[in-house]
Design goal:
With 176 residues, the protein is an all-alpha fold. It has two domains: 37 residues; 117 residues. It contains five helices and two strands; from the N terminus they run ααβαααβ. The radius of gyration is 43 Å and the shape is rod-shaped.
């Protein structure tokens, strides 16, 4: 501090000039840093990320889960139909026991047509067959829609509109 005071006392004009130069240098440095930091360094707006799609439906967990749900429904419906078939067999054996031993197939059919339990079981079996057919049709639609989605996903990945979410097939899948 003593040095500066002496310089100011000896040559006050020189001290002022020096002070002005120091201020100008500081302003130039700050301005240069601001310009360098702001020029061309603005962040460009980020493009939205490309959607991830499965190009192999076997890797799509949601698809596999929907197939498993459909499989469970098919198994439950098939079990009910099997139980109905067992009851129908028991009904046939019960009606056959009442008929004379030399009665033919026509007599058995006539006796079953008159049996109320047999009619109920036939109607129940037809309804269960329709339910199984609905489940099967739903499975066919699920598979067909997923195959179309897979085909569209492959096109989107090739055109750069999407990114493949699954790993590429290697080894025997490619015929190597």
């Amino acid at each position: 501090m003593g040095c500066l005071r002496r310089i100011r006392e000896r040559c006050p004009q020189r001290a002022r000039v020096r002070g002005v130069w120091h201020c100008l240098a500081a302003l130039a440095l700050c301005g240069g840093l601001l310009l360098a930091g702001g020029c061309g360094c603005r962040k460009q707006p980020e493009a939205p990320p490309l959607p991830e799609v499965y190009t192999n439906r076997a890797n799509d967990k949601a698809y596999i889960e929907s197939l498993l749900v459909n499989d469970r429904e098919q198994r439950a419906a098939a079990l009910l139909r099997y139980q109905t078939t067992l009851l129908m067999t028991q009904c046939v054996l019960r009606v056959q026991a009442v008929l004379p031993p030399d009665a033919g197939g026509d007599a058995l059919e006539d006796a079953l047509a008159a049996d109320a339990e047999w009619q109920r079981l036939v109607a129940q079996a037809e309804e269960q067959d329709k339910a199984i057919a609905r489940i099967y049709d739903s499975l066919k639609d699920t598979i067909q829609n997923r195959m179309l989605e897979e085909q569209q996903a492959m096109v989107d990945v090739e055109n750069g509109k999407a990114v493949a979410a699954d790993k590429p097939r290697v080894g025997r899948a490619l015929g190597q």
